[in-house]
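Encode chain A's predicted structure.
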Amino acid sequence: MRKIIVFLMFIVFGLSLTACEENELAIQKSVAKIAIEAYLPLLDQNTLLVYDWDTLESIVEEAQDNIDSALDKAGVDSVFATAKTALDALILNEETNNTIKADFLEEYGYELVARYYGRYNDAFVFFIIDSNETEEPSSKIISIEGYEFSYNTLWTMLAWKDGVFYNLEETTVFDDEILTQTNVETIHNIHTNWN
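Encoded structure for chain A:
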């Protein structure tokens, strides 16, 4: 009889421990889902940069779905880390943002108003509509590393790295290995989805 009681106590203890672990995992999943959404930048009306919100929100939604599917704490942590890395590549921190804007103003003589296409090899890529154009607006189509970029007005695409701006239409950015063809493919996908 004692063996049966001990066995039943062991089963009850094991079930309560399992329930406790499941509850902890559920709490961790909820916290991770909230944290990854909170990682998105606040919509700042004073910023002159435009984020690709569709891509950012897609990363968050996919991470939240994958967090729901995670089987354990390590799975939740892995999904969170992967999503955070993906978001980091598409979000500028305030200090870098301010440095780039100051460098741009000094280099070009007007404020940077741009779409931010992400960070690649520590180079930050921007799509800039030429607001200082003196000619009649017209569309511009160019090929960069075999990918066609177009927009219905004059524009420039620049990469900024270590205080230097590189025009993506010039080969220097590729000769100096600032960007790669794989980077351009990603940038092209962002550009195409944004237009």
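The chain has two domains: 20-43+52-88, 94-194.
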